[in-house]
Design brief:
Shape: globular
Number of strands: 15
Strand order of the largest sheet: 3-2-1-4-5-6-11
Radius of gyration: 20 Å
Helix content: 25-40%
Distance between the termini: 30 Å
Mean pLDDT: 97
Bound molecules: NADP nicotinamide-adenine-dinucleotide phosphate, ligand G4F
Number of helices: 10
Order of helices and strands: EHEEHEHHEHEEHEEEHEEHEEEHH
Low-confidence stretches: none
Structural class: alpha/beta
């Protein structure tokens, strides 16, 4: 009989790639979709009608509906990827963030406990929990020091997952994933904002791109590589916590330069602080400016992960380099943006994601 998996957050970046991976392995996939006033299924529209693909309405803020859905489906695995996942936005909607990201996992775990079903649970934990880092590189053993409502909500979810594992003998595991990106990344995360913005500038559709903290450093990987790790974490013989990262760290500034290279630009920097500008040496034009609106009340300046435990125990390795990631995202956004140029309306926000 086919394995059954529920994915919360299936309409998001990781959920869509994980759904593809599980379907390719013969799973029956049950995606949880929350109600939206406009279609929110652009990343998974291509999966409708595929054997084993099912969708149902559910929301992480609604316990009774989670109970009904889990009881009816009787899944073997539950991948909890649903979240208000934007760190900056979590300062604006802290209560919603905590309700979804912290209490959502608690609601799922309570349901699993009350039903007494042998469901394996995956919690999408985050490097944002390390916050102002207390060790370099960060490992599974590094203490958390969150700096945002988002980071703290994920710390609660991480610990409640461990507590249900040890206290109730539930197969519940955490994946502590560092930043991972793709052509399906939400358009208000910095990597995607840059690939779209610079692509538009290269075609003359936009003059400048306004960014926040250029000095922040992140360990950026590729979402498609990371969903392999997510699946492997639940296939391990026992529940455990694994850190998933590339081990490399780069600044936002380096990301801008790298994306620029793939568009034939040569970006150099002039000025300091709010007056800093990125200039394309080929045209002499200013294309990057700083807008303090993108600064956060607290910032996480530096993340770099050590994934040697996952490499050793799960036999997982990142396959995509920093430059390879910038190339694949830029190439795809250039395709979307060229369509904007010919069709005369925004395509990026209405795209059907196929890559
Ligand atoms: P994403 O693209 O923002 O997707 C988030 C998903 O959660 C979307 O499907 C969203 O639905 C859904 N969601 C939001 N609120 C919900 C609610 N109340 N009930 C049910 N579903 C809800 O995020 P992602 O990048 O794929 O990340 C997946 C997970 O990994 C998240 O938990 C994130 O916090 C975590 N994570 C991500 C990274 C990263 O770098 N990408 C790193 C570490 C951890 P809509 O489509 O309707 O908005
Ligand atoms: O792309 P970001 O918004 O990602 P952030 O805050 O690191 O969070 C992502 O990774 C976490 C894992 O560590 C996930 F848990 C979380 O769900 C999400 O996927 O920002 C990256 C850095 C930050 O330091 C930010 O201040 O880029 C800086 N930045 C500079 N200018 C900007 C901008 N970020 C955004 N979103 N927009 C800017 O204009």
């Amino acid at each position: 009989m086919a394995q059954k998996a529920i994915i919360s957050g299936i309409t998001g970046q990781d959920g869509s790639y994980l759904a593809e991976l599980l379907l390719s392995k013969g799973y029956e996939v049950y995606g949880l979709q929350r109600r939206a006033s406009l279609p929110n299924t652009g990343r998974i529209d291509h999966l409708y009608g595929k054997k084993g693909f099912n969708m149902t309405y559910a929301d992480l803020s609604d316990s009774s509906n989670l109970l009904r859905v889990i009881k009816k489906i009787e899944p073997d695995e539950f991948y909890n990827l649903g979240a208000q996942s934007h760190v900056g936005v979590s300062f604006d909607v802290p209560e919603f963030t905590v309700n979804t990201n912290a209490l959502g996992p608690l609601r799922i775990l309570e349901t699993i406990r009350n039903l007494g079903m042998p469901i394996k649970y995956y919690q999408a934990s985050s490097s944002e929990m390390f916050g102002k880092v207390l060790e370099i590189p960060q490992r599974e053993t590094t203490p958390f020091n969150p700096q945002s409502p988002y980071g703290l909500s994920k710390v609660f979810a991480f610990h409640i997952t461990k507590i249900y594992r040890t206290g109730y003998n539930i197969f519940a595991s955490n994946g502590i994933l560092f930043n991972h990106e793709s052509p399906r990344r939400g358009i208000n995360f910095v990597t995607r904002k840059v690939t779209i913005g610079l692509s538009r500038i290269s075609l003359g559709l936009q003059k400048t791109l306004k960014l926040g903290n250029l000095d922040a450093k992140r360990d950026w990987g590729y979402s498609k590589d990371y969903v392999e790790a997510i699946w492997k974490i639940l296939q391990h013989k026992e529940p455990d916590d694994f850190l998933i990262a590339t081990g490399e760290t780069h600044s936002v500034r380096e990301w801008v330069e790298e994306v620029g290279k793939h568009l034939g630009m040569s970006i150099t920097w002039k000025g300091k602080g709010l007056l800093e500008k990125g200039i394309d040496q080929k045209t002499g034009k200013t294309i990057i400016e700083i807008d303090p609106i993108h600064f956060r009340p607290n910032e996480v300046e530096f993340l770099q992960g050590d994934s040697s435990k996952a490499q050793k125990i799960l036999n997982w390795k990142p396959k995509t380099t920093f430059s390879g990631l910038a190339k694949l995202m830029t190439e795809q956004d250039l395709v979307y943006v060229k369509r904007e140029a010919t069709e005369g309306h925004p395509v990026v926000t209405q795209q059907k994601f196929q890559v």
